[in-house]
Amino acid sequence: MKTIAIIGASLAGLRSAQALRQQGFDGRIVVVGDEVHLPYDRPPLSKDFLLGKVEAVPLADQEDLDALNVEWRLGVRATGLLSAREVSLSDDSTVEADGIVIATGGLPRTIPGTRVLRTLDDAIKLREAFGTAQHVGIIGAGFIGAEIASSARALGKDVTVVEALPTPLTRVLGAEMGAACGHLHGDHGSTLITGINVDSVNVDGGINLADGRIVHADVVVAGIGARPATDWLTGGPVNLDNGVLCDAGGVTNVRNIVAVGDVANCAGHRAEHWTSATEQAQVATRNLLAGETVATHTGGGYVWSDQYGVRIQFIGRATDDVRVEDGSIEDRKFVATYRDGDNPDDVVGIVAMSNARLFTRLRRNLK
């Protein structure tokens, strides 16, 4: 291969470029990104960035970026995959490449009248809005919604979080551990409303709930998940289904095209995690250079979230058999394990709240 195009200039895209160089590829690398910014870290956007403690946090310093010898095409969107070797761009140009890495990530799901937090530009606008707002409404009590709620409370705002499910984070952590995380809102003065759908959002602020109640808010933020950014691939040669379909090594049905990060549906699973994007990039680029699947990604899906001064960590998968191994839920400091239903002695998942040391020790033995 002489040229490899990476479509997506965030974490997965940058890590793919770095992995290619680490694995000895010395050809041309073109990185296409729809944002004008060089790669930056997204997790701080909902926390220290909103609080004004940091500005954009680069994922690599300029010296490291220069050493990659990458051709950056920023502020330009990919608009189509014309063939297995050609990508059309929004500036009416094309990029031809022997290999392609799809790393376009996800797009936030929205509700009319709400703000979202996905990009640096989103965060800049939201931080400005928080400057004059007193009442903040959050739709969705997942990790991103909870983090934004935590930041708003730290800024002295009145916060109401609305969650359609009876318990927050049930799909990720299960009902018991999701409820434990949900208690953090009340502990710190936020109002959590669960088990109710949102009917609409007023243009001038406020959330209309399905039961007729109105949540007053100057700013409303939707944290209701994301969908894979695959619109530009519709009708092209790569198979799609809840993302870019690929095997466990990130290889698509087109041998010289791989997918990494939030956009990749690898062996039936799409992971929207920081660590997954990094790990998948190493594996997928290796397979791209090999021309076949010689390695697979077997990461445990580690994710962390900082809320109200508490760090929540999770890895593996949640089951109905969950056991607190240390500490207590009431103290908001504990480690719990999830056990396999057929083999109760096997730990298949771990969740911790403010107990990083034991979490790290236990994860070494994760099945």
Describe the structure.
By secondary structure, this protein is of the alpha/beta class. It has helices at 11-22, 62-68, 120-132, 143-154, 170-173, 175-187, 274-290, 356-363, and strands spanning 3-7, 28-33, 71-74, 78-83, 86-89, 94-96, 99-102, 106-108, 135-139, 158-163, 191-194, 198-201, 207-209, 214-215, 219-222, 226-228, 244-246, 257-259, 264-266, 303-307, 310-316, 322-328, 333-339, 347-353. The strands form 7 sheets. It has a 5-stranded parallel β-sheet, with helices on one face. The radius of gyration is 21 Å and the shape is globular. The protein starts with a strand and ends with a helix. Residues 3-281 form the FAD/NAD(P)-binding domain. Its cofactor is FAD. InterPro entries: FAD-oxidoreductase/Apoptosis (IPR050446), FAD/NAD-bd_sf (IPR036188), FAD/NAD-binding_dom (IPR023753), FAD/NAD-linked_Rdtase_dimer_sf (IPR016156), Reductase_C (IPR028202). This is Pyridine nucleotide-disulfide oxidoreductase.
Which structural class do the helices and strands define?
alpha/beta
Radius of gyration: 21 Å
Can you tell me the residue ranges where pLDDT is under 50 for at least 5 consecutive residues?
none
**Hey, roughly how much beta strand do the residues contain?**
25-35%
- Roughly what percent helix? 10-25%
- The N- and C-terminal alpha carbons lie at a distance of 38 Å
Short structural summary:
The chain has 367 residues and is α/β, with parallel strands linked by helices. It is 23% helix and 29% strand.
